[in-house]
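Entry type: protein chain
Record version: 2
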Amino acid sequence: MTNLVSDPTGGTLEDASTRSGDDSPRWWQRRWVAPAAEAAVSVGAAGVYTLLCTRIVVNPINRIGQVSGLAKLQEYVAVLGLPVLAVLLFTAYRGSALRHQLVKRLVCAVLAGLATGVVAGGVVIALRGTPWPLGGQEGDPGVIMAMATTIMDGKGLPGVYPPGFPMAMALWSELFYGGRTGAGFALHDLQILFTALFGPMAYLSWRLVLRPFWALLIALPASVVFLDPIRPYSHIVMVMLVPVLVAFFRAMGRAPARRPRTALLLGLAFGAVFGALFLWYSGWFLWAAPGVLVLALFCFPWRRGRTARLRTALYLAGAAAGFAVVGSPLLYELAKASGSVPDRYAFLAVYADPSYVLNFVSDRSGDLTYDTWPGTGDLAGQSGISVLLLFGTGLALGLALRQLTVRVAAAVLIGSWLLRFYYAGKMSHDRAVQLYPRTTWIIMYCLMIMAVLGLMALVNRGSNWGDRVLAVRDAATGAIPRRVVRQVAAGMVCVIAVFGAMGAGWSINRYMPEDPAKNTMGMDAWRAHLLQKPDGKCPKYAPNGDCVVHEVKDRSQYPDDGVLWCAGIVAAEWPTICGRKAPFDDLSTKPAPAPEPSESPSPSGPAAGTEGSAKPSEPAGSAESAKPSATKSGTR
């Protein structure tokens, strides 16, 4: 089969060893060496690049310093990436297909690491001069720090919140920062570490089920689009979950041919992996569950005989047992809470049309409102990227529905889609959001997967059709030369690399420090520069040289008042948006000052042109300019 990642001409490394007459292949020819090399170079590229960025010296608080830092990021990634791409292009035009295949595997792995290495390097720049994490001690970072402190104080796990990352913070703080006072410093380090590892983990997960080119085509865009350096642990579970599910269902299909003991152990291993991901971040399991359970019923070998059914059931039982054992700490907390921890936090994504699923906005939305976001596309409100993703999804369903990867992505997409509208439809009655806006990410991710799989199916079908139609002289010779396919694939890898560099720059630019008054995502880095360092001094680039003392807190659960909290809305608009009176007052509820009486025109002066004119000291429209921004007041 001719495709962008075709098998090398002349066979595999094992075949070459067999032809040479040596029954014991050398160590570099063993099957595990190439995958291990992929993992090593991907993680190494991310780590080396991130460490290199510690040498960038700029002031992250002012915009000129930020721009210089962003430019240095692109300079460094070009210096590291261009030689790698040059080697790829050289082997595509010169040398054997076997060598090019190995080079392509390693290059794709390096590019995945460099992409999120750029984002991690940007976090290093944004936090230069401060040991505190993005967010400081406010918002979600403050809550996670309190969870880690609670664990270090021996007061138990953080309730229904996944305990994996807070436990890692607690361990890191104990090892490197002396215990409970170091949770913030641990979060600082782990934000950078897991941001850098996001790309390698995503790429290596997709390498379980796809060849290097296609794995990179999914993993790299997903990494730069979905990576959130403030909470890098959450989205990596989403990105990894789909390929691991594909591998799980693939093993399920092969279970009838395995020995019972092997099927059971394999199921236990998959269950343990799912349990670990569940402890790291559990939300994606809820959205994926309906579709995955239905797909499991369809994939079960109901008609293949008693032995096949028993071995598959044994495999599934092992998976369930492994998941229950590893995930038991969080499963116990969820069972104990039994739905008594509702999510009542509303923000801009909650006020917008729920059918919009191709972009996400947080409560750091700047001057956006639900009237201006999302932007209106040209075709029934849909943008060009929406149409392209849907077109690619149609290709996947039409040309590759028999592929397990397509079925799993479609199942996760459908389950998330239904739960999104189920919870959004109940929101008014239950006064609970239940995190349904987060389905935006997993729906968009599945659409991206389906589009890539549709493109892959189109390339494979098209190349096969070309071979059949154009190969008129020799049926064994393809119409499209293998070398041409390698060269085209190498060129496309270069394009993906450029996209990754630009996309990573876009991603980290959003998190560069910015005054909290603007209510953008840059406020989290700004807050990190406002906390006093352990030596009692302010961070080097603290705005105005001022800082505050960090407060070490344990986790506290706020009482549920049974009503929505509508963030980003001025008090006067709460009744029309949130359905109740605001529990606070701001400028929007204060009466406007009465206008000063204007002086009567002098009887001897001209009357024309004097009425209604503004006073020189008070320009017209000042009352309008005094209105507060709809996104800068009332934010929790």
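Comment: The longest helix spans residues 439-470.
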